[in-house]
Amino acid sequence: MTKIAMKTPLVEMDGDEMTRIIWQQIKDILLHPFVDLKTEYYDLGLPNRDATDDRVTTASAEATLRLGVAVKCATITPNAQRVEEYKLKKMWKSPNGTIRAILDGTVFRAPIVVDCIRPFVASWKRPITIARHAYGDVYRDAETRVDGPARADLVVTYADGRVETVRIHDFDGPGVLLGMHNLDASIRSFARACFTYALSVRQDLWFATKDTISKTYDHRFKDLFEEVFEDGFRARFKEAGIEYFYTLIDDAVARVMRSEGGYVWACKNYDGDVMSDMVASACGSLAMMTSVLVSPDGKYEFEAAHGTVTRHYYRHLKGERTSTNPMATLFAWTGALRKRGELDGLADLQDFADRLECASLETILAGTVTGDLAPLCDLPKVEVVDTKGFLEAIAARLSAGA
Ligand code: NAP
Ligand code: MG
After folding, report:
1. If you take atom 40 of ligand 1, which residue's CA is the nearest one?
2. d(CA 223, CA 240)
3. Is this structure's pTM higher than 0.85?
């Protein structure tokens, strides 16, 4: 059988622990036999990040700017315990944070929907994609405790010397204080990424804030989204037959629970953090959630939404066979290959990505599943297999259909 050819290499970002093992298995069992895989390889595994003083992470993000499409394995974000475990030189920053900062991207997360796994929300028929603003708000705040009676002000000192003071509160006893910010440029680029993505998947875009309470801060988000929409997107949305819909965050949450799904939900940073976990768990499993980082100028980095599955990895190291679900990591590969195919005009590469996704969904529908899915599947009979067995079952289907 001749293998499918590629033109431009994918940026391949390898990672850690159980997902690193799955990464290799996916390549060996499902990619190399069918595709003449071209990648520019970056080892983002923690030992190599430490050895390169984390320069490998920056280099991989820069390669993504150059080549346009990356696929990333889950990586460890070190904490004190990891510094000890891996004898690290220092507590390196989150690779995802570093890559996101370089690509200035927005993260879109969507569940992988299979007919036999019914979401806990009975009305949801199609996936809900969450777009999370990845800059500012409470994630870049300044906080302090007030330990007695005090007056607290917001003080803005402009470069030209002007000073503006806004009273926050007159404390008559102890309390807490928080200052946060966002940037017009970041909100605009978030808005553009969301409108562009909604157009590319031909789905409505929802956006919500609490602008009735936060009349300046949240209202700025609402106004900038409106401005970006009017400036070039309204006409294209009309043409594509999709809508932009703005409402209050509490109304949005209520509507989401009653909806059929099938739209992109743009969320402020904190809302996106919380709501993506809600959507993921309502759809069954974090292992069935994909994630793609899209930069405003259309560079893509595909990954799984879950971590390195440490608990399974420790069992693997003890020689146990684990049944870790590779679907999200596999869909990161198919997403990246499809996008590469689109950009390079390679129809057979796009077709391969579709067929591989189909084969994996059919494998689950036929009742061959990993352990996490067994209790969720609405099927008369399921057979739980280990990760390798699951990937081999997909390969068999793919070969049979090819
Ligand atoms: P995790 O790796 O997502 O795993 C948490 C638990 O969720 C697992 O123990 C497992 O539950 C279940 N799970 C997750 N993915 C699964 C899969 N593919 N198949 C089956 N079950 C799955 O989160 P964590 O244990 O909190 O974090 C581990 C490491 O990952 C940390 O070092 C963290 O820094 C890193 N992390 C990386 C990323 C990223 O690179 N994008 C994201 C999050 C976390 P059971 O044990 O009950 O089976
Ligand atoms: Mg979260």
Report:
1. 74
2. 23
3. yes
